[in-house]
Amino acid sequence: PWSSPQAFPLPSLPRKQPTVLVVCGPAQNGAIGLVCARHLRIFDYEPTIFYPKRSPDPLYRDFTTQCEKMDIPFLSYLPTEVQLINDAYNAVVDAVLGAEAEAGEGREPCAAILATLKHIRIPIVSLDVPSGWDVEAGSSGGISPDVLVSLSAPKQCARSFLGRQHFVAGRFLPYDVQKKFELNPPEYPGTECVVALRAPR
């Protein structure tokens, strides 16, 4: 499911200045972030990617090449002065760790990235599992996103999510997987691939 996450308009992102910083980690969630950046570009947003530890996986390299060919800029470093990030972007997409992270938040470059993301004021959109969270127990000193986009289905930690909006992108989850894990997917209106589980607050 991670090869086709969808982009969606964010109410906090006015079209006049639709700048988004997509922060990608080295594993699967980072690849999801690359795909997200590509979709955002298609929808006329202006993503910038920070991807400090690139995976040697050929598929991830392909995603990186696609972003480069779409003229999406890559940052060489993440400013530690959070005001620079607040001023330059309208939102941050957190694709640093995700569901498969173990103790990755304690290792570089992830630890420094999370330290910076914890202090920014612009909205954070986390993909699948907010970085620094345990996939089951929830937040344990990780970031506090404004928006959570659960991929396939909400993880156990989503019960601890207190942000403004929660979306799920899992319309194309195979029926055998739904049955195996006893999932009860929401109704997707029309041709939407993403559905809101929590209305804006």
From TrEMBL:
**Cellular component per GO?**
mitochondrion
Give the matching InterPro entries. Answer: YjeF_N_dom (IPR004443), YjeF_N_dom_sf (IPR036652), YJEFN_prot_NAXE-like (IPR032976)
- Identify the residues that the record assigns to the YjeF N-terminal domain, covering every copy: 1-185
A single GO molecular-function term is: NAD(P)HX epimerase activity
Q: What is this protein called?
A: ApoA-I-binding protein 2
Q: Gene of origin? A: Yjefn3
